[in-house]
Write a structure and sequence with these properties.
Largest sheet: none
Number of domains: 1
Number of helices: 10
Strand content: under 5%
Number of strands: 0
Helix content: over 70%
Distance between the termini: 41 Å
Length: 210
């Protein structure tokens, strides 16, 4: 077996704890699910997953190590991600007055949701650092190719992430069914917009001070 059973059990346990803890990606998925429906929620999960795939490939091939070794590269990545979160926040708040929760999003809208999900996760410096620091803890060089082990663990993490993220979509849709009033349905858009702004501003200050 490529990965030691005890390492695999520890990895799955630790990954589950991390995946059920809400972060920027989960916030994005829940917001899209509440505001635009189930299809948009699934599209956001796909986008976040694609962004995560880039981080996994970066960790496997050592690109994340380059980012970790370069404070300037890390700062640029953080600032880009912070800026995009701020843009998402402004867009969410501006679109509240035009939101029509009962109308399914168009194909173009779903593509935008997917692309935004990719960017939200892709320009999340914590995600790159997470894979760089987390995955190697469960790799045993004596059991074969470290690259193959990293790839397996990264793929397993992404698969688990898709399952838990879809669970958040289902939970958001259940919550949405409890929010039947038109005015109440505007609340998620405002809240998510404000949270995006706060995350973006906080990340920008952290990047400047880092």
């Amino acid at each position: 077996m490529l990965i030691a059973p005890q390492n695999l059990i520890l990895f799955v346990s630790a990954a589950l704890v991390l995946l059920v803890t809400p972060g920027p990606a989960v916030l994005y998925i829940v917001a899209r699910s509440l505001e635009q429906g189930k299809l948009a929620g699934v599209a956001s999960v796909a986008g976040v997953g694609l962004g995560g795939l880039v981080h996994v490939l970066g960790a496997v091939f050592g690109l994340s190590a380059i980012v970790a070794a370069s404070p300037f590269a890390f700062r640029v990545l953080a600032l880009v991600g912070a800026g995009y979160l701020i843009v998402l926040g402004i867009r969410s708040i501006r679109q509240v007055s035009r939101a029509l929760p009962s109308v399914a999003p168009s194909g173009k809208a779903l593509r935008r949701v997917l692309a935004d999900g990719v960017i939200v996760n892709l320009f999340n410096p914590k995600a790159a650092m997470f894979f760089l620091a987390f995955l190697p803890q469960f790799v045993d060089p004596s059991r074969g190719s470290t690259t193959a082990q990293l790839a397996v663990l990264g793929g397993l993490f992404l698969g688990m992430a898709v399952v838990t993220d879809l669970g958040y979509v289902a939970a958001a849709r259940s919550l949405d069914r409890c929010l039947q009033g038109r005015d109440i349905l505007r609340v998620p858009g405002v809240v998510s917009g404000v949270v995006y702004l706060l995350l973006g501003i906080g990340a920008a200050f952290a990047a400047r001070l880092g």
